[in-house]
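Example with several molecule types.
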Amino acid sequence: MGRVSDGRERLMNAALDLIWEESYGAVTIDDICNRSKVKKGSFYYFFESKADLAVAALEHLWSTHTKPLMDEIFSPLLSPLERLDKAFKRAYDRQVELKQETGKVLGCPYFCIGCEMTDQEPRLGEKMREIVGRKRRYYESAIRDAVAAGEIAPCDPAEKALCLMAMVEGLLSQARILNDTAVLKNLPAMAMGLIGAKSIATPTV
Amino acid sequence: MGRVSDGRERLMNAALDLIWEESYGAVTIDDICNRSKVKKGSFYYFFESKADLAVAALEHLWSTHTKPLMDEIFSPLLSPLERLDKAFKRAYDRQVELKQETGKVLGCPYFCIGCEMTDQEPRLGEKMREIVGRKRRYYESAIRDAVAAGEIAPCDPAEKALCLMAMVEGLLSQARILNDTAVLKNLPAMAMGLIGAKSIATPTV
DNA sequence: CTTGCATTTGACCATTTAGTAAACAATTCT
DNA sequence: AGAATTGTTTACTAAATGGTCAAATGCAAG
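Resulting structure tokens for the full complex:
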């Protein structure tokens, strides 16, 4: 009952776009309102603060985009190494796509915002820790499966996942800093090398 | 002739501390003035803007701390693998030290600020690219030497250095996000593993 | 010791920003 | 239709922030 609105979602999308392109600190509530065509009165009708909106926006991004994508990439229908290889290739393709759309290599929103906001805005820091942890579990599980299947040498999956994610996120960050996707060109090969496997050749289209 | 002052340096140090602990966007000129006990009038006597100060502060950090430290760590008197191992161990020790001093795992200032500021404040972004590039050259050179000395398998040193740095910086970032040095516990072992070598055992004191 | 320069100070202004309030508009349920 | 509920708008306030200026203050060399 009552009036219906997509204002809440427009705000979350605008906030995410702006914060990802610039940074949390560089974006004001007015910026978000302008981009989403929502008036400030409505902003405060939906959210308590910028931090509150950011937390909601990031959880929204996770549940509507990241999680479904991760579930597809890490589908048990693929072999463990295929899952990982797919993940790395998607990461590269995504950045190329973003560069074309926005002119910028944006890297990983969770990581960028996480680094910026660990200690300020406790709820936001907590959310980032949560989401980064979720992502790691996908890698960890695939590595565990790969070891069990004898596809890679035995190792501590938790430790290896941490490392693997560090490399992927580290490369994404460097690509963002340099605004250059070339850095990521052989992310798949390098990441697969880290776990002691070869990247799966894909035919050039 | 005229009056002498350490105001400029006090400003740079305060700015660096604050920005590293929080973030560039979260720190105001007033904050920096308070911390450094320099009045705003003097701030604008020394610097044009916050970005201007940040650029100076980061270059200052590089030339007074980072470069000397890197030169010592990557001294040609050590074998290439010893240099790298030393670099990784120092990185870990430093974060433990910072955690004790500030209660926070701060990660790498160049990388954190770099991610936040790539596209805003062009001069600052440029400076970060510059410094990150300098750091990479130390790794690259050590890897090249290690290959030449037959200490590790042949590889593309530039690519390997990028990767290695990605892993180190990626782990540092995760440590910052989680505010936990445990993530870095076996950074040396993992990083040495990446280049196909073993970390050098050090006696526990 | 005084002159010239380098710094300091504090008061000040303009703008941006977060946040509020109350009237208004649209939708649905009864 | 008319409540009741949900969302929208506008105009407003208070505080924070960036930025300026002219006068005052120390230092150091001649």
